[in-house]
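Reproducibility note. Readers wishing to regenerate the assembly model reported in the main text can use the exact inputs given here. Chain order matters: entities are listed in the order in which they were concatenated for prediction.
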Amino acid sequence: MPSKTVNPEDWLAALDKSGFRMTTAQETLVNIFAHSEYPLSAEQAWDAARQSRPKTGRATVYRMVEKLESLGLIRRIHGYLGCSHFVPTLPELMMLFICLDCGRADYLDSRPLDDLIQQSEHATGHQITDSRLQLFGACVDCQQNA
Amino acid sequence: MPSKTVNPEDWLAALDKSGFRMTTAQETLVNIFAHSEYPLSAEQAWDAARQSRPKTGRATVYRMVEKLESLGLIRRIHGYLGCSHFVPTLPELMMLFICLDCGRADYLDSRPLDDLIQQSEHATGHQITDSRLQLFGACVDCQQNA
DNA sequence: AGGTAAATGAAACTGGGTATCAATAAAGAA
DNA sequence: TTCTTTATTGATACCCAGTTTCATTTACCT
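Running the prediction on these inputs yields the following structure tokens for the assembly.
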């Protein structure tokens, strides 16, 4: 499974630019989400945060998740594991593939989806302003290891 | 917004065929979901059920939702309103459009999605076994009434 | 350094959803 | 029809992810 990475510094810069104060709780959580190899729930992020910063509060984590999501830095996954997990956002790669075996997320080129949306707009007359596409199955690695 | 309908009798037949007993609670809830014009949450269905059958229990509703979903008769919507609403399933029309104004769901021909999936399988090597696509925006009616 | 408001943490709270279990009622047998 | 069996139901207690509250802390600006 090809993995794309994200730079926590960029997230901190974006938060700074948006006027948020730079705190240790924020830095901890940004690093956790930006480096996560798997989709992460708020509770999982909370557990991870307390390992390096024990007195991190639960509310802080939920507030940070909300902040990161509203800035478009992370996005929610609507999957077989529930709808409470998040992955870093990769611009121009909005199509998500989730491996039902290893659980990892892969990002796919979303131009085909843009075409599909334009096609659907013409066919129905609806004005489509947002979309959500997720694909599920077995990733390349898990197919080989099976 | 074009609306497609579903026959409750078919659902009851499917439940019967699967070995479930025919009960009044079941009949009540099947009618509610099959006739709903809008996506319905379990709590909303519970409210609706108690209007015609006051002593309907909450657990019964959740059990019925699970049953209907596992038989593929209803499907969960992952939307801006949360992930707890359900709509009747229409075979061959798996693409959902949700109007952010009136809240109604429209079903779209999903052949374009099938093509996209095949394309993505070839491009990535992943084996795609399931998909979830939802489109959001303003439906034809709401564009006119705006 | 000092003032100020944002950010935090602890804890109480909310509400959707689940587990339990005794009572009910559907389906088949006699 | 009545009887027997067992799935289904409803009431209640329960769970837990997520939110609210508020006093305390801390980043930022001067």
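We highlight two features of this model. Residues 21-24, 41-43, 58-59, 62, 84 of chain A lie near DNA strand D (CB under 10 Å from a C1'). Chain A has a mean pLDDT of 94.
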